[in-house]
C-alpha cells in the first residue's frame, strides 16, 4: 500500500525502534552504516535506518528508476526536462559524455591560459581579486577560497554578492583600484545585483585613477556574447556550458577566483576529488553508496517522521560557509511542489537546510536540538587534521565536543526533574574528513550534489530548474518600470515610506 507521502508501507509503517535499541539489535550496524570514501568517513549509524529500511528504500529507488536516471545524468541526457537541457556539472570533472568532457576541458584550458597570463602580470600588477556574482555564481567560489585559501598569499580575494552598497564599500576600503581585477560571474550576464555591482566597481576604478578599467575585467559566463556586448574584451571572457546549472557551477570557470587564488594544481585536485566521488556514486552498491544512503536518511526523516528542517554544523572554521552553500544547493534544487511531469508531489519535498559552526552553535541553538519539541536531524562535518598551528588541545576539544553532541542527542538522559531531562533518540550523521585538502573538499561537495539528485529522484522532481525565484525579480523590475499602482496597499505604503 502506498501512503499519501508516496512512500510504501514498508517504509512508513516500519517499526520505530530507538537508536540505542537498534545498536543492540544490529551488532553489525556500525560496519554497515559507517564507511569511508575519498578520505571521508560517512557515519549514518546514529540514524534510524535499519537493515529493513535500507532494503525498503533501495526497492523504492529501483522503482523510481534511480540507476537509469543516474546513468542519464552522466550521459548528458536532457534530464532538466522543464528547461530542455542536460545537467553536465560532472563533465567539468571528466565524468560525462566524451563530447561534453572535451568541451569542458577546452574551456578549462582557456581559463588556465588566462590565469598564466595574469600571473605573468600581462594585466598589470594584480594583487586583489574582486569577484562579483550572486547565488551559485558566488557561494561556491567563496566557500572554496574561504576553506582552502587561508594561508594562500597569492592574491587577496573578495567575493561580493549583495546589492547593498555596504558590501562593496567594505572591500573598497582595503583594495587598490589599480591592482584590482574585477571578475564578473554570472551565468546569464543579466542578474540585476551583479551587473549593478560590476558597474559600481568600474566607477570606483575610474575614480581611483585607472585609465582603462575594462582592461582589468574578466567575465565568467554561459552567455559570452552578452559579456562582450557589456564591454569585456573577448580574450578575458571565460565561458562555461549552458548545461552547467548555477548552483552546480563552481567546477567551471565560475571557480576562477579559487583557481587563481589557490593555484591551478589545487583547482585540478579539487576536480579530481569530485571525480572520485562521481565514480563512487556511479559504481558503489546502493547500500554502501554515501549520497544514496544520505538521501534515504533525508527522505525518512522528512516524509515519515515529519522533520521540517535539517541542520548542518561544521566543526571546523574553514567550513563555516558550508551551511549557506548547502542551503542554495538543497533548497533551490528540491524546494518544489510539483514533479518533473507537472503533477503535484505526494508529500514534503526539501527540508529547510540551516546550520552553523561548532562549537559556537552549542551555546546558541543546541538547546532546541536536545530538548525542543521538533525533530531536527543533525549533520556534523568535522576534519581530523587541524587547520591551524595552535596547541593540539584546541582541535581535540573541538572534535570531542562534536562527537559528544552526537552521543548526547542519541542517548539522552533521564532526570526526575522534567526540565533537566533529555529524551534522546535524536538522530545525527557525522562526516569526518581526514584532511581538508582541495581533493577532499571536491569530494565532499560532489557528495552533496549527488545526494540532492537522489532526493530529487525519490521525490520525482526536477532538481535543476528554479522558477520559484523569478516572480520576485519580475515584481522588483515592474516596480521600477511601471510604478506601484497595481500593488496592494501594504506594498504601496512601504514604497511610499521608503522613497517618499
Ligand atoms: O535567482 C536565482 C539564480 O538564478 C540562481 O540560480 C543563480 O545561481 C543566481 O541566480 C545567479 O544567476 P547568474 O549566474 O545568472 O547571475
Automatic annotation (TrEMBL):
<comment type="function">
    <text>Catalyzes the reversible isomerization of glucose-6-phosphate to fructose-6-phosphate.</text>
</comment>
<keyword id="KW-0312">Gluconeogenesis</keyword>
<dbReference type="GO" id="GO:0006094">
    <property type="term" value="P:gluconeogenesis"/>
</dbReference>
<keyword id="KW-0963">Cytoplasm</keyword>
<keyword id="KW-0413">Isomerase</keyword>
<dbReference type="GO" id="GO:0051156">
    <property type="term" value="P:glucose 6-phosphate metabolic process"/>
</dbReference>
<comment type="pathway">
    <text>Carbohydrate degradation; glycolysis; D-glyceraldehyde 3-phosphate and glycerone phosphate from D-glucose: step 2/4.</text>
</comment>
<feature type="active site">
    <location>
        <position position="363"/>
    </location>
</feature>
<dbReference type="GO" id="GO:0097367">
    <property type="term" value="F:carbohydrate derivative binding"/>
</dbReference>
<feature type="active site" description="Proton donor">
    <location>
        <position position="332"/>
    </location>
</feature>
<dbReference type="InterPro" id="IPR018189">
    <property type="entry name" value="Phosphoglucose_isomerase_CS"/>
</dbReference>
<dbReference type="InterPro" id="IPR035476">
    <property type="entry name" value="SIS_PGI_1"/>
</dbReference>
<protein>
    <recommendedName>
        <fullName>Glucose-6-phosphate isomerase</fullName>
        <ecNumber>5.3.1.9</ecNumber>
    </recommendedName>
</protein>
<feature type="active site">
    <location>
        <position position="473"/>
    </location>
</feature>
<dbReference type="GO" id="GO:0048029">
    <property type="term" value="F:monosaccharide binding"/>
</dbReference>
<comment type="pathway">
    <text>Carbohydrate biosynthesis; gluconeogenesis.</text>
</comment>
<dbReference type="InterPro" id="IPR001672">
    <property type="entry name" value="G6P_Isomerase"/>
</dbReference>
<dbReference type="Pfam" id="PF00342">
    <property type="entry name" value="PGI"/>
</dbReference>
<dbReference type="GO" id="GO:0005829">
    <property type="term" value="C:cytosol"/>
</dbReference>
<dbReference type="InterPro" id="IPR035482">
    <property type="entry name" value="SIS_PGI_2"/>
</dbReference>
<dbReference type="InterPro" id="IPR023096">
    <property type="entry name" value="G6P_Isomerase_C"/>
</dbReference>
<dbReference type="GO" id="GO:0004347">
    <property type="term" value="F:glucose-6-phosphate isomerase activity"/>
</dbReference>
<comment type="similarity">
    <text>Belongs to the GPI family.</text>
</comment>
<dbReference type="GO" id="GO:0006096">
    <property type="term" value="P:glycolytic process"/>
</dbReference>
<dbReference type="InterPro" id="IPR046348">
    <property type="entry name" value="SIS_dom_sf"/>
</dbReference>
<keyword id="KW-0324">Glycolysis</keyword>
Amino acid at each position: 500500500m502506498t501512503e499519501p507521502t508516496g512512500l510504501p508501507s514498508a517504509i512508513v509503517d516500519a517499526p520505530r525502534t530507538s537508536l540505542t535499541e537498534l545498536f543492540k539489535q544490529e551488532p553489525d550496524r556500525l560496519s554497515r552504516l559507517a564507511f569511508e570514501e575519498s578520505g571521508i568517513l560517512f557515519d549514518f549509524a546514529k540514524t534510524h535506518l535499519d537493515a529493513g529500511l535500507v532494503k525498503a528504500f533501495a526497492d523504492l529507488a529501483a522503482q523510481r528508476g534511480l540507476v537509469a536516471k543516474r546513468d542519464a545524468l552522466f550521459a548528458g541526457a536532457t534530464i532538466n526536462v522543464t528547461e530542455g537541457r542536460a545537467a553536465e556539472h560532472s563533465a567539468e570533472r571528466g565524468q560525462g559524455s566524451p563530447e561534453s568532457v572535451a568541451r569542458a576541458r577546452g574551456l578549462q584550458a582557456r581559463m588556465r591560459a588566462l590565469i598564466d597570463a595574469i600571473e605573468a602580470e600581462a594585466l598589470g600588477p594584480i594583487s586583489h581579486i574582486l569577484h562579483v556574482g550572486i547565488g551559485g555564481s558566488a557561494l561556491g567560489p567563496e566557500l572554496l577560497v574561504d576553506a582552502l585559501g587561508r594561508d594562500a598569499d597569492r592574491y587577496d580575494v573578495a567575493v561580493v554578492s549583495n546589492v547593498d552598497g555596504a558590501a562593496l564599500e567594505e572591500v573598497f576600503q582595503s583594495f587598490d583600484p589599480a591592482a584590482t581585477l574585477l571578475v564578473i560571474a554570472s551565468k546569464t550576464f543579466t542578474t540585476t545585483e551583479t551587473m549593478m555591482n560590476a558597474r559600481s566597481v568600474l566607477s570606483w576604478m575610474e575614480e581611483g585613477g585607472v585609465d582603462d578599467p575594462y582592461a582589468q575585467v574578466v567575465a565568467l559566463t554561459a552567455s559570452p556574447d552578452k559579456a562582450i556586448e557589456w564591454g569585456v574584451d573577448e580574450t578575458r571572457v571565460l565561458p562555461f556550458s549552458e548545461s552547467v546549472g548555477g548552483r552546480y557551477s563552481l567546477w567551471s570557470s565560475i571557480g576562477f577566483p579559487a583557481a587563481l587564488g589557490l593555484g591551478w594544481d589545487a583547482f585540478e585536485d579539487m576536480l579530481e576529488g569530485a571525480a572520485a566521488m562521481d565514480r563512487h556514486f556511479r559504481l558503489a552498491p546502493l547500500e554502501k553508496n554515501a549520497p544514496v544512503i544520505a538521501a534515504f536518511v533525508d527522505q525518512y526523516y522528512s516524509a515519515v517522521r515529519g522533520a521540517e528542517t535539517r541542520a548542518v554544523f561544521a566543526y571546523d572554521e574553514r567550513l563555516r560557509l558550508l551551511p549557506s552553500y548547502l542551503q542554495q544547493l538543497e533548497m533551490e534544487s528540491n524546494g518544489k511542489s510539483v514533479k518533473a511531469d507537472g503533477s503535484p508531489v505526494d508529500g514534503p519535498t526539501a527540508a529547510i537546510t540551516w546550520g552553523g559552526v561548532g562549537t559556537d552553535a552549542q551555546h546558541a541553538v543546541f538547546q532546541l536540538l536536545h530538548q525542543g519539541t521538533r525533530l531536527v536531524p543533525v549533520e556534523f562535518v568535522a576534519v581530523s587534521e587541524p587547520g591551524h598551528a595552535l596547541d593540539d588541545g584546541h582541535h581535540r576539544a573541538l572534535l570531542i565536543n562534536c562527537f559528544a553532541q552526537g552521543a548526547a542527542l542519541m542517548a539522552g538522559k533521564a532526570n526526575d526533574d522534567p526540565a533537566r531531562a533529555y529524551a534522546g533518540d535524536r538522530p545525527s550523521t557525522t562526516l569526518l574528513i581526514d584532511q581538508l585538502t582541495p581533493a577532499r573538499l571536491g569530494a565532499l561537495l560532489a557528495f552533496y550534489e549527488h545526494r540532492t539528485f537522489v532526493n530529487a529522484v525519490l521525490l520525482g522532481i526536477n532538481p535543476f530548474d528554479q522558477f520559484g525565484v523569478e516572480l520576485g525579480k519580475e515584481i522588483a523590475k515592474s516596480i521600477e518600470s511601471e510604478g506601484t499602482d497595481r500593488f496592494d496597499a501594504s506594498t504601496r505604503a512601504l514604497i511610499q515610506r521608503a522613497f517618499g
